[in-house]
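EI: anyone free to look at a 229-residue chain?
SC: sure, send it
EI:
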Amino acid sequence: MEEFEEKFSQIASIIGDKSRSVILWNLLDGRAHTATELATSANISLQSASNHLAKMIKSNILSVEKQGRHRYFKYANAEVAQVIESMASLVPLHKEFKKIKTPKLNDFTYARTCYDHLAGSVGVKITNSLLDNKIIEISGKDYEVTLSGKKWFSKMGLNINIIKLQKRSFAHQCLDWSERKHHIAGALGASLLDIMIKKDWIRKKKNSREVIITSFGKMELNNRLNIEI
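SC: here you go
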């Protein structure tokens, strides 16, 4: 137990550093970044960023991949992203922020990516509608797809049996830091976002985690899930 507590304390200490926490937050866009890009995001020197990155790689929080002359850093696994997003829900929201009922279309809280799945107000609405329409159901902290849900996803072009073969969480609850409600994450959440992008329901904004719901996407979401966006 003492060994576990020591390792837990080390991980908490690494994540708790201000510069490292900013780096981890910026990696939530799901892309791999160079040390220079991450240094700029954290407003620190390249040497300092390299030291921070080395510590996080050693602790299996980040991984690095070399491509040509550059080295790209990203989360070691999807579980790290889940922890970072969940931590954000502990941050108290300002009264002014709480008053926001209908964020603007390009607002970060309205529709954004959380690592590799959809988050924000739209992400939560889609998840709730999937539950209301009995396409998915809650199982502990995870989601399971119902028999009718398999047919629904099949019409979307997604094969649930194939998605389950991925070596990662199939579908779990991810606490949305701005909505304070759950959206769907895991392999299913990532596949759903990917197919909506391919179908042009959603478009990613360049160099941002914000996404745009297209007019076609709004119509399809209304037709298939009875959601008003």
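EI: The mean pLDDT is 88.
SC: 👍
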